[in-house]
Amino acid sequence: MQSTHLREHNLSTLLSTLASAEAPLSRAGLAKLTRLTKPTVSKLVEELVAAGLVAEGTPVSAGAGRPMVPLSPARGTLLAIGLEVAADHISCLGIDLTGEAISQRTEYLRVTAASAEEAIQHCAALVGRVRADAGSLPTVGVVAAVPGRIAPDDGRVLSAPNLDWTEVPLVGRLLAHPELAGLPVRAQNDNRLSVLTEIDRRPGESFIYLRGSTGVGGAVVLDGQLLDGAHGWAGEFGHTVVVPDGALCRCGRRGCLEAYVSYHSLRERAGLGDDVRIEDLVDALSRHGDRAEVIGMIGRSLGLAVANALNVLDLATVVLSGYLAPIADELEPVIRGTVEAHALAVEAGPVRIERSDGLADPALRGAARAALQPVFSAPGEWIAREPSTPAR
Amino acid sequence: MQSTHLREHNLSTLLSTLASAEAPLSRAGLAKLTRLTKPTVSKLVEELVAAGLVAEGTPVSAGAGRPMVPLSPARGTLLAIGLEVAADHISCLGIDLTGEAISQRTEYLRVTAASAEEAIQHCAALVGRVRADAGSLPTVGVVAAVPGRIAPDDGRVLSAPNLDWTEVPLVGRLLAHPELAGLPVRAQNDNRLSVLTEIDRRPGESFIYLRGSTGVGGAVVLDGQLLDGAHGWAGEFGHTVVVPDGALCRCGRRGCLEAYVSYHSLRERAGLGDDVRIEDLVDALSRHGDRAEVIGMIGRSLGLAVANALNVLDLATVVLSGYLAPIADELEPVIRGTVEAHALAVEAGPVRIERSDGLADPALRGAARAALQPVFSAPGEWIAREPSTPAR
Fold first, then answer.
1. Rounded-to-integer distance, Cα A236 and Cα A239, Å
2. Domain HTH marR-type, which positions (chains A, B) (predicted)?
């Protein structure tokens, strides 16, 4: 039993080391980095290669001795699927072990105008199309990103006010579709998935991550680790109060940050239709009013929520993502003004307000990456399956 | 070098195990709990006993075999000193290795009416008296609890608005006094020290700790660990905003929780003099107004700050301490109402609002305990000194 655990642990270490390396590694290089013996590395690499998890490149000769075989995670041998349910679209992304996209499908759809069951039908159909795009590749699993609170036990969406969803048994319903039958399926908060790329970019850092999308939310990262909290819901800045007894939020509460700076609230306040896309929101608002006023309102509301969170957490970095990233330079001075007026941390030095990497669809990519995770944490189970051959 | 580290580590483990045990332990019991060999335990215990850190009790015979010698941390062999600077008093407490008080001295003094230098003179004098009370006991060090932000590098008090202190070089000035010369001296935020006892009472738990005293502040505890943040300032609930552009706080900001529910703000708003003691505050306020109104205002303000923090941290327990502890039962329904109106965590189940252990002077006791910590983390240095004999 102990040796099975050890073997699994070593396989996981080898695969993860290859995935995080900037360039392919030789068996000797792997042994050095993982501190495993060369015979152990050779034996386990052989298994990983046979299972289609690791690819051997063209041997490189250093002149003397045996040529070095470069190793890297295999491309196109398996499929991990991310789903994102947003107010105005549903997207599905399939990636392989290297994180490379194999297929992405998006359907623009007003989710609040449909029933949850219809939206779930669309999700299942998109998964089916992405799996078809990927040919015969074996699927690791599916993770769905949802702008709401997920029950930790069974993947029910307890509340996703920006989708008008309450108590939607998302995971259970997805599993009932033939496109997903038998697959591991999980649901997770969209903001907590979207922060994963940012954590990779900032190893070991502590920061507040704020993302504007369907809702406004985020995550708290302490020393490179995502803070979970009691129910996996930490980082819900969107429902901290910025105006006591203020505007009614879609969640039913009053004065939430989201009642002022979410897609829905900004759009409705400006009298814009629901055909505006999230990424075009601020530009559309500016055409209907004074851009400085729009930025000012968003920035002051965010600044207050951020200042309150900084006082509780004592962090020195704030990262803006989603629709906030492209306007981060405009927002920065407004947020900074409010933060400096209220956050004690500025007594020790400036608070950094930065933009995220700006890559598109961070929640969708985070969901696909989360779906891939079981292969890295327990490659042994994957090795025990039928080996697959590269699709390309 | 390695073996010195190992020895220090083992000494620390043994002493800490004895301190956290509910009853005295035998050498065999220590070996079992620490997983050290019996010869190692015997050798190190001998050193700890010789240095006056561990006491041997009366041997107990189990009938057969060698009688068991009960071991526990030694009483009255050393002195660790805590100081507390509050708005209306300065206290000094000396404890021994068991945490038992050897001497406590308090001076009631309006710190804001005096200069910081005068207050520091009083601190030094109190330390001198406590050391005199303790006779010839060797002093481990001094930790001062201050209601403010301490510079992580040199123990300057950057700001302590409720004392009217800005940039006070507390540690440096204390060290200049003959009563403290040559001692290790540190300063720390009062609320972060006061939570230490609560952490012991709730091993491994996660909770928000809110303390009403000179100011209103607290701490965040995650899985039994105090959250530090970037500068050791996490848990400053008192300066989260509960009324945007609201009342002016002593810190110079507007709308802080502390502008509504601190000792100063409540007293001044009710027109009470500064001769009211912190622990008598709510009773005094009730004599000048409607008690339900006073409790309602305090509870709603706290509730909003707590709800915002719960949304960011996703915790399920709130502990009330300081002047909030004796009125916790009255505050609970008011805080609960506001928390339930704003905290997402209630979607998963009730948030527990509890009172702290209610022991007097938690910050002072926490400070003394923090002063003791070096003996537990590096007993070897203490062993290398001259051994001391029990004072009683």
1. 6
2. 14-56
